[in-house]
Amino acid sequence: MPQIMSIDIVKELIKSCSVGHRRFIRESKAAERYYENKNDILYGVRKSRENDPLRNADNRIPRNFHGLLVNQKAAYMFSAPPLFDVGNETVNKQIADMLGDKYAKVCKDLCIKASNCRVAWLHYWKGDAGNWKYGTIDPKQIIPVYSTDLDRQLDAVLRNYKTRDAVDGKVIYVWEYWTAERCCVYKKKSSSISELGLEAITYLRWLIPRMEACRWLMTLNMALEKCHLYHSTTITFPRMTWST
Fold first, then answer.
1. How far apart are the C-alpha atoms of 120 and 137, rounded to whole Å?
2. If pLDDT is split at 50, 70 and 90, which confidence band does 67 have?
3. Could you tell me the residue ranges of all domains in the chain?
4. pTM for this one?
């Protein structure tokens, strides 16, 4: 079950990461907007040329080149998703069955999110029946906490998202702090990326439905990072061990 740790530690982490994460959100939203063909040209101020009827046309027509390139890359890389070969046909089939039909779509989603946000995160856990589940998480919700040594390992993850309070139904913003040993959960009433107003949650069962019997197995260690120079995507697996 989730645990409560010193809220001062979490507040200090949020405070130190808030500036960089706000910038990351702005850049990610701009890229996602371009992916949806909502380019900056649509929001510019139209020049007034009322006295020149021959040059009064408004030719602000967006071209979705970014969306086309991202979709093309996702289709090229993951139309046939990566296969796992452990040297045993029976085990290979079990892995394929475990990944399920959504595996190809999840791979494409990771690629699209990484292309727009520079990184994509995968969350996987065990379901109530002991079956393996996984899904993508909005990169704008995630603040990774890396070690300061040369290996730069993923030490912890901060996640924040909007939901409703199970007690009064009001909108709240949940902050989760994940380490290899535990998950600590907090809430605040404002959506700001800051430590102000953060408080611990004492009722936890509603936070992630159907995960109480899952031993809270969660990893956010698959990162798809976009290389800006060559517009390619590389897959990295930070070394991190999670308790089960």
1. 7
2. very high
3. 7-36+61-236
4. 0.73
